[in-house]
Amino acid sequence: MFQNDAFRALDRHECLSLLAKVPVGRVVYTRQALPAVLPINFSLDTDASVLLHTSSDSDLVRAIDGVVVAFEADEFDAASRSGWSVVVTGRATVVTDPVEHERLSDAGPTSWMPLGDAVFVRIESEMLTGRELRGTHGAR
Q1: Rounded to two decimals, what is the model's pTM?
Q2: Closest by CA position to 87, among listed 3, 2, 12, 1
Q3: Tens of pLDDT along 43-82?
């Protein structure tokens, strides 16, 4: 991949640090054999997994439980042409252990939507990649 002073790859520690700073990312998965992307709020767990809190009967849960998905979060400033993007790739699973569910109820993300029967979904950070774009003023 071409790299110059305006672009650099991020290491795992930098990726996790940046992910911890933003409240919303996007789950990338397959829905009816087509690519789908859904913005959702999240948090990181102590093991670097991405945690989602959503309704147990949601289409998202049915589509991603037990399969490999991608999760992307970013932050960009159009004026300075700078920012970053991080992608987590790994297996998504619904948290079924009652003790773990209780722990996440206290420490995990809170859904921005009203939920009935809420579940937590964990996306393991099996592969973590990121890139940073530093401002390129005047470039076209």
Answers
A1: 0.88
A2: 12
A3: 999 999 999 999 888 899 999 999 999 999 999 999 988 9
**How far from 110 is each of 34, 51, 121, CA to CA, in Å?**
29, 10, 12
How many CA atoms, within 13 angstroms, populate the side-chain half-sphere of residue 133?
18
Token pair 């109820």 is found at 105
Which residues contact residue 8 at a Cβ distance below 8 angstroms, ignoring those fewer than 6 apart? 131, 132, 134
Find, among 75, 74, 60, the residue nearest to 28 by Cα.
60
In sign, the C-alpha dihedral spanning 131, 49, 125, 47 is: positive
Give the number of other Cβ atoms within 10 Å of residue 14's Cβ.
Answer: 16
Structure tokens belonging to residue 11:
């290491």
8 A C-beta contact, residue 29 and residue 39: no
Q: What are φ and ψ of residue 107, in 5° steps?
A: -110, -10
Cα–Cα distance measured from residue 11 to residue 23, given in angstroms and rounded to the nearest whole number: 21
